[in-house]
Amino acid sequence: MNVVTTDLPGVLILEPKVFGDERGFFYESFNARAFKEATGLDTQFVQDNHSRSQKGVLRGLHYQLENTQGKLVRVTDGEVLDVTVDIRRSSPNFGKWVAVRLSAANHRQLWVPEGFAHGFVVLSDYAEFLYKTTDYYTPSAERSIRWDDPDLAIDWQLESAPLLSAKDQAAPLFKDADVFP
Q1: What pLDDT does 123 receive?
Q2: Helix or strand or coil: residue 158?
Q3: Is there a smaller number of Cβ atoms within 10 Å at the N or the C end of the chain?
């Protein structure tokens, strides 16, 4: 697998080796040994999640303060713009973000370490979004930040207003959010 660094240290784009011919394609979406060799991370995943969303759905920006989750995310159908924000107050990159297009066509995966908020918007008619997490989902530890926070100024590449959950509509601004030390 090819590992591409981003402007946020620790946030990595993973490009698997895809073997294709007239029948279709094959690739290993996860191999613990290859992941460790490529990234240097000895990560244990405990939960797999799968969502399907229609065009214009924006999920995020989400994170957990306790039971923090590293996430390995990918798209198996459609395309999303995936956004990661450094929310570690002690980081020199605090408040900075990166956006990466993930799609079924490009097979890219994104490693989102603990200490980062995460979200995505669906660019295609719909998208199937899968991700592995390093800890279990704990509703009481879940936090969020407004997707349209003016201090973050994230370019979501939207054509119209996004479709949001009630939770995401009520998310606090970045300056008022609970973040990591």
Answers
A1: 98
A2: coil
A3: C
CA–CA dist 171, 149 (Å, integer): 10
Residue 137: how many other CB atoms lie within 10 Å: 13
Structure tokens at 92: 């020199």
**What are the structure tokens assigned to 71, written together?**
């996430």
* Residue 153: partners with Cβ closer than 8 Å, 6 or more residues away: none
Cα–Cα nearest to 48, from 162, 111, 129, 142: 129
Which residues are catalytic, by number? 62, 131
The whole-angstrom separation of Cα 151 and Cα 146 is 10
Tell me which residue has tokens 């929310």.
87
Global pTM reads 0.95
* Beta-bridge partner residues of 102: 80
Whether cis (ω within 30° of 0) applies to the bond prior to 41 is no
**Tens digits of per-residue pLDDT, 10-62?**
999 999 999 999 999 999 999 999 999 999 999 999 999 999 999 999 999 99
- The structure tokens listed for 61 are 């920006």
User: What tokens appear for 180 in the block?
Assistant: 């990591």
In the chain, the domains with their CATH numbers are: 44-176 (2.60.120.10)
